[in-house]
Design a protein that fits this description.
Layout lengths: L2 E4 L5 H7 L4 E4 L4 H4 L5 E4 L7 H5 L6 E4 L9 H6 L3 E4 L5 H17 L1 H9 L17 E5 L3 H12 L3 E5 L10 E3 L3 H7 L2 E4 L13 H5 L5 E5 L8 H10 L2 E6 L17 E3 L8 H19 L1
Parallel strand pairs: 1-2, 1-3, 3-4, 4-5, 6-7, 6-9, 7-8, 9-10, 10-11, 11-12
Helix pairs in contact: 1-11, 5-7
Length: 295
């Protein structure tokens, strides 16, 4: 019988359906021990599937990532062992796009700050004057599944959409692609990141690129930690060059760094795909892919 190890949290409905495929070990206390006879390993972003983990799983045939990014999996080591790596790139796209839009609203209208003040019995309307999204330019770095969904949602609110995404890319009528990165940075009121963490995107937002942005720019990252230089972000949020930033992902997680000291940086704990609907879509897509591979 196929042995399936699930090392990160998944919806109970998905776990139960996986039991129809094979024997399931869910959230093992000792991952190395559980993988000794495993055929399939299912992870989210928490589990790091290193070369050592892979080498300790002699019967492993499939690594399934419940989500988009594969940066927590040593793809080279998996390839050398003949292990198939799969993910679910489209299943969580809408959830992440909606979270990104929520963060933009929160930054522009001081929603999180107002909530915190009210919980502490502070009534301070005069310091909570916000801005409107209509008429502002949203700059999207990475106009793929998530970026294009966010673009459509933001455009329906009256925002102008520009994007930096070298070809091949998803063309549509609402977006203006700007191929000169410096020119792109100059035009955006809000910059949002939707790219994988690879050599060309590591610390793409840094002191130099921030200096080319508008004064009072808003920055948002719901893609991967490491794409923003967090030290540079800290300094420029302090000076006011960046009006506000919102982060769902961090270079090291859980994040406990100095950005938490700042009132104009807003945080969520890597919950982009954490909706009931997205998790069910992810699970169902994984199940179908695993069934096909087992066949």
């Amino acid at each position: 019988m196929t042995q399936i190890v699930i090392s990160d949290n998944m919806e109970s409905e998905v776990v139960e359906e996986l039991k129809t495929i094979g024997e399931v070990i869910y959230l093992p206390e000792n991952l190395s021990e559980a993988l000794k006879d495993a055929d399939v390993l299912i992870v989210r972003s928490k589990t790091k599937v290193t070369k050592e983990v892979i080498e300790g799983a002699p019967t492993l045939k499939i690594i399934a990532r419940a989500g988009v990014g594969l940066d927590n999996i040593d793809l080279k080591a998996a390839g050398e062992k003949g292990i198939t790596v799969i993910n679910t790139p489209g299943a969580s796209a809408n959830a992440v796009a909606e979270l990104a839009l929520g963060h933009i609203f929160s930054m522009f209208r001081n929603i999180a700050k107002a909530h915190y003040q009210m919980k502490n019995k502070i009534w301070d309307k005069k310091h909570l004057v916000g801005r409107e999204l209509e008429g502002k330019t949203l700059g999207i770095i990475g106009y793929g599944r998530i970026g294009s969904l966010l673009g459509k949602k933001a455009n329906s609110l009256g925002m102008k959409i520009i994007a930096y995404n070298p070809p091949p890319r998803h063309e549509d009528e609402i977006v203006e692609f700007i191929d000169d990165f410096d020119e792109f940075l100059k035009k955006a009121d809000v910059i949002t990141l939707h790219v994988p963490l690879i050599d060309s995107t590591k610390n793409i937002i840094n002191s130099e690129t921030i200096s080319k942005m508008k004064d009072g720019v808003y920055i948002l990252n719901t893609s991967r930690g490491g794409i923003i230089d967090e030290d540079a972000l800290y300094e420029e949020c302090k000076t006011g060059k960046i009006a506000a930033a919102a982060l769902d992902v961090y270079a090291e997680e859980p994040y406990m760094g100095k950005l938490l000291e700042l009132d104009n940086v807003f945080f969520t704990p890597h919950i982009g795909a954490s909706t009931k609907e997205a998790q069910l879509r992810i699970g169902k897509e994984l199940i179908e892919k695993i069934k096909e591979l087992i066949k």
